[in-house]
Every structure is written in C-alpha cells, then in structure tokens.
Amino acid sequence: MLTPYGEPGFPNPELADARGLVAAGGALSPAWLRAAYDSGIFPWYDDGMPPLWWSPDPRTLMDPEHLHVSRSMRRFLRSTPFELRFDTHFAEVMRACASDREEGTWILPEMIDAYVALHQQGEAHSVEVWDGAQLVGGLYGVQRGALFAAESMFHRATNASKLALIAAIHSLFAGGIRVFDVQFVTSHLASLGAYTVPRREYLARVRDATTERVNLSGLKLSCP
User: What pLDDT digit, counting tens, does each position of 166-183 carry?
Assistant: First the structure.
C-alpha cells in the first residue's frame, strides 16, 4: 500500500500483476497524477476504495498514420454543423463523461477535482463538440510533454464522440504530440484504427515523449 505522504512514487510498472495493477494507495492529486503518467500508469477505481494504479499489457495507442475514417464519416466531417473547441469547458466535459454511463463510473468527484486542478496547471485538456450552445460530445486527457493520455469521452449526438476523437488525433499530433494513449482496445476504437503495443515498448515511448516540451495552449482543432 502506497502512503499518501511525502513525494509520490510507484513500483516498476513491469512488475504489475496479470491484470495490470501496479499499486494501491497514495493520493489523488496533481503531483501523484504527474508521477503516474510519467511512469505509464493511470488511476482507475470505484467509490469507497483507495486509489488503484494500473499499467496494462499490452497498451493501446492511436495516431494519424493508423487512423481509419470511413467514407460515411468523411461525408459527416465535411457537412457537420458541430463546432470544435479546445479547453473551454474542461470540468463540464469530465462531468459529462462521468454521468453519461449506464454501468456507473470511475470518474468520482475527487477525481474530477484532481484533474481539473491539473487542467488549471496546463497539463490536462478537453476536446469539445458543440451544437450551438449545447455541449454534445468530447473527450479529456492528460498531457505530459509529447504524451497525451486520453481518459474518457462521451456523446449526446450521433458521431459527436467520433468527431472529438478524430479531431484530437489529427490536431494534437500536428501540435507536437507523439504518443496518444487510449489504454485499452475496444471494438469501437479498433474500428477507428487503434492498435496495441507491448507494455515495455509503451513505457519506452513514454520515457522519450515526456522529456519533450510541447505547448498546446491555443491549439486550433481540425479534422483530416
């Protein structure tokens, strides 16, 4: 069990158990989140539990080279009335990701507080899809140098989350991101071009990416 006091620190993620669990305990704060993402680790746990920290093997990534946009989606991108915005309502995106899940959520109030604090320090970002004054889709994630770790996305209109993800991959890589992490592969993500790499390769990529300086302030979102 990690102690929440003192400097944050984690065991070697290569020593995680078969499920990818690295450690329990510690604290959910910007300092702990920075240390976690720099180590290829992320928090994921239920209400009433101590923070649980994970580094699954394999790890799922996305990038412009592998991104698959169907013909029907390309037609939608050309004609959509939706507007893309970056970092205008981060907390609202997190709350939408938490509330729009029938199966429940791991995005607990203390997690929202910690990531909002990280956002206020310029190290977490939201990609937002707006229909007029209504937020209809989006995603959020953590940036550490040239690493962007996407955490969750939501939609309240058809294709809104796909639009957010496609715009995020296209625009963040154009802005200097080199590693776009989506943690676990799903059929939905695979259909858009997500692919897996061994954890050891992922950790090597993270070590390189987090040494770079990338400023996403004022990023302009667009689609391919």
Answer: 999 999 999 999 999 999
What's the CATH class of domain 13-56? Answer: alpha beta
Dist. CA 96–CA 123, nearest whole Å: 20
In whole angstroms, give the CA distance from residue 62 to residue 95.
24
Residue 103 confidence class, pLDDT cut points 50, 70, 90: low
Is CATH 3.40.630.70 the classification given to domain 60-209? Answer: yes
Cα separation, 52 vs 198, in Å, equals 21
Residues 160, 136: contact at Cβ < 8 Å? yes
All structural domains of the chain with their residue ranges: 13-56, 60-209
Beta strands in 117-186 (DSSP E): 124-131, 134-144, 147-155, 179-183
Supply the pLDDT for residue 166.
98
Residue 100 buriedness (CB in 10 A; 0-12 / 13-18 / 19+):
middle
Give whole-number Cα distances, 87 to 15, 119, 122, 200, 212, in Å: 35, 9, 10, 32, 21
